Amino acid sequence: MIAFVLGILMATLAYVAEMNDWNGLPEYLTVGFAGYVLIISAAAYYLTAILYEWSRETETWQGEL
Question: Is-contact 17 28, C-beta < 8 A?
């Protein structure tokens, strides 16, 4: 969750930097890209954890039959 929120903040900073034409734009775009990577990684981790939990539930169903 921390990586997701941090990624959103980093991507927002890059967006604001681009809209306001701040100096050092390539550095802000790099920070924004890293933010997007954090967002995608956090979402992938969360979805993988959900799939893992769902797969464990089906094992208990198979054991009850």
Answer: yes
Q: pTM for the whole thing?
A: 0.72
**Average pLDDT per consecutive 10 residues, the chain (65 residues; last block may be shorter):** 90 88 82 92 93 75 58
Q: Alpha-carbon distance 46 to 57, whole Å?
A: 17
Question: How distant is the alpha carbon of residue 51 from its chain centre?
Answer: 17
- Is residue 51, in this structure, part of any structural domain at all? yes
d(CA 37, CA 14): 13
In a domain, 25, yes or no: yes
Residue with tokens 């979805």: 47
**Structure tokens that stand for 42 in this block:** 């956090």
